[in-house]
């Protein structure tokens, strides 16, 4: 399993090249992680630009701005009223503890494992693997993991990779790239796939 998971990483890396991902830095990463829930990154970028233009990409502003005004700024991301509340909850935590633990992040209403781990990996450089819907799709098709348990798949990947932030960062970014370009939810482009020889889905279609 270890050899296979690392081989897939190398093939994806050779095919797509270095990703240098996540977009943004500092607090923008945490805000982006919340806004990215159930929407595309293009919509998140629009909201982040509005927040920057309003000089409101800071803990102080995000805590003091009204829910209504914050909702208007992040409207492009959908579910903006709920996300505004989540951002305020997160800012309250960050105001108390600038470097919260995973458990503390998960205690914030509206922050789940994927969002918490994105913050830990991309902002605080903690070696955690971010598992998202793309990861479930790809590793299921590869025949590596067929269930939908976040913690189980995360443990499987961490156990079989070097415990390095850079590798977890790049691997997650490569999975996102691959899922968006080739391993599509519907009508995947298996002919172009650099890991098709390792894929049970490709071999059965």
Mean pLDDT: 95
What is the CA–CA distance across the termini?
23 Å
- Quickly give the structural class: mainly alpha
- The dominant shape is elongated
List low-confidence stretches.
none
Query: Please, how many helices?
Result: 12
What features would you describe in this structure?
The protein is mostly helical. It folds into 2 domains: 2-21 and 129-203, Endonuclease Iii, domain 2, CATH 1.10.1670; 27-122, Hypothetical protein, domain 2 (Endonuclease III, domain 1, Orthogonal Bundle), CATH 1.10.340.30. It has helices at residues 2-16, 27-35, 41-53, 59-64, 67-73, 80-96, 102-106, 113-122, 133-141, 150-159, 165-181, 200-203. The longest helix has 17 residues, at 80-96. The relative contact order is 0.14. The mean pLDDT is 95.
What attributes characterize this protein structure?
205 residues, mainly alpha, Endonuclease Iii, domain 2, Endonuclease III, domain 1, 2 domains, elongated
What's the gist of this structure?
With 205 residues, the protein is mainly alpha-helical.
